[in-house]
Amino acid sequence: MKTIIDKIWDAHCVRPESDDAPAVLYVDLHLVHEVTTPQAFDELRARGLAVRRPERTLATLDHSTPTLPANPDGTLPYKDAATRNQVDTMLANCREFGITLHGFDSGQRGIVHVMGPELGATQPGMTIVCGDSHTATHGAFGALAFGIGTTEVGHVLATQCLLQRRPKTLAVTVNGTLPPEATAKDLILHIIGVLGMDGGTGHVIEYRGEAIRALSMEGRMTVCNMSIEAGARAGLIAPDEVTFAYLRGRPNAPQGADFDAAVACWKQLVSDPDARYDREVVIDAADVRPTVTWGTNPGQVIAVDQHVPAQRTAAAARSLSYMGFDGDAPLLGRKVDVVFVGSCTNGRIEDLRAVAGVLRGRKVASHVRMLVVPGSEAVKRQAEAEGIHTVILAAGAQWREPGCSMCLAMNGDEVGAGELCVSTSNRNFEGRQGKGARTVLASPATAAACAVAGVIADPRQYPPLVEEAA
Ligand SMILES: CC(C)[C@H](C(=O)O)[C@@H](O)C(=O)O
Ligand code: SF4
Q1: Tell me, what's the pLDDT at 469?
Q2: Which atom of ligand 2 is nearest to the CA of 410?
Q3: pLDDT at res. 311
Q4: What reactions does this protein catalyze (predicted)?
Q5: Distance between CA atoms of residues 295 and 301, nearest Å
Q6: Which DSSP symbol is given to 251?
């Protein structure tokens, strides 16, 4: 009796682990971006090695790319020479090693964890790796997807295999139905609050239960994306009809009769009814409220209308002092300086629809700087086709080019020292969004409500406005 995690592991295990060596795991898809690959390609060059399977390697540009439009002379407004150099190095490496790069003008560039799924490159049952800690996003499709380090990126480029110790398994079962005001982001923040920021260490999480099944693919990606924020090595959701419907017709997915044959195989990718997990946690979806972080790690969460906890530990006191919040006091009403909507957690079309729903007919508070950054070119196109960008611009927010942007502030999109940013991204560490920047993680609906209110606000106070009949 096996879990889906065991099934995928066993199907890819080239050599099982022994006391003195990890297992050798075959990798179906290797995603690469400009930040964690330069030394790996250098290593290949130094050893005279080729990329073992370039057709299973897919590249993008996301972390260092500017989100402002091109300069009048056609050049891009890079933050500095280092970021431009990272992108140029990636372009040269992909050319030299024969790797498909979805770069500028491809129409398909995007944050690596947004682009893979929308191309249909991410598929159930695959092993997927990327030199990036949020690779678990791809687990939403029932894939075993790990973040790896730059040395391992080199190993995978050269061998298409990865050395890994077999992970422990953790079932997170979410029973019942989410209340209408709670989104997938609120759910995963709530889950991390329950598990703690290292509660998943050494484990791969399988998210399951009625409330998980009810999520769209976008919502499932949001949930799996943040598995690492609970310390887990990966997180996944068994594929079902929602998964298959999402994948059908995507360019890198199997086509026609091959797709139907693939679905027949993918349907086997479920945990057997009496499969045993190393650990199980049960969550009641009805308990989930619009949830935000109050501190400097993603496990420090409260429902938005709760009080920040009293300072009980030195770590909590340090978090509060960095954030400039008081213990045992409400977050609601705290002044907000910046709102960031985007990232591989919440930069997809449904997220932008939720933001437009709140902003339509309303204005961003005059002291708030709000950036809306689509997760990919495809998301941007879709949003513009739906008129979402018009709503965002009319509200006074900025509509940018796709990329990681202010999620980690590598490209020049930064929050100022001491400023408070409500962000739909996944990390609220000290300095994550800029030196001295303070981050409150939230759902797109909550972020948009805060932008309008100009303070930390409850999204339930900002329901979509119904247009009056003419
Ligand atoms: C730049 C990259 C290595 C990093 C990661 O691994 O996650 C980034 O994507 C992040 O979110 O901090
Ligand atoms: S959007 Fe943020 S979390 Fe996602 S890959 Fe980019 S920097 Fe990392």
Answers
A1: 55
A2: 7
A3: 83
A4: (2R,3S)-3-isopropylmalate = (2S)-2-isopropylmalate
A5: 7
A6: T
At residue 164, the pLDDT reads 96
Residues 94, 59, 215: CA angle, nearest 5 degrees: 175
Atom of ligand 1 nearest to the CA of 410: 1
Q: The tokens of 153 are what?
A: 């990126």
| Nearest protein Cα to ligand 1, atom 2 | 132
CA of 114 to the centre of ligand 1 (A): 14
Q: Which residues of the chain have pLDDT under 50?
A: none
Which residue has a Cα nearest atom 2 of ligand 2? Answer: 407
Check residue 23 and give its pLDDT.
98
Could you tell me the residue ranges of all domains in the chain? 4-163, 168-237+263-287, 291-461
pLDDT of residue 460: 98
CA of 132 to the centre of ligand 1 (A): 5
Is there a common fold for 4-163 and 291-461? yes
Mapped onto helix, strand or coil, the DSSP state of residue 403 is coil
pLDDT of residue 467: 66
Q: What is the pLDDT of residue 312?
A: 81
Distance 241 CA to ligand 2 centre (A): 28
Q: How far apart are the first and last CA of the chain?
A: 61
For residue 146, the cross-strand partners are: 129
> Of the residues 83, 133, 344, 426, which should be mutated to test ligand 1's pocket, given the most ligand atoms within 8 Å of the CB?
133
Strand partners for 130: 31, 147
- 3-state SS track over 328-359: CEECCCCECCEEEECHHHHCCHHHHHHHHHHH
Annotated binding-site residues for [4Fe-4S] cluster read 344, 404, 407
pTM here is: 0.98
408, 423, 432, 433, best to mutate for ligand 2 pocket (most atoms within 8 Å of CB): 408
* Fold adopted by 4-163: Aconitase; domain 3 (3.30.499)
CATH class label, 168-237+263-287: alpha beta
- Provide the CATH topology of domain 291-461: Aconitase; domain 3 (3.30.499)
Q: How far apart are CA 411 and CA 108, in angstroms?
A: 19
Residue 82 backbone class (left: φ over 0; alpha: ψ -120 to 50; beta: rest): alpha
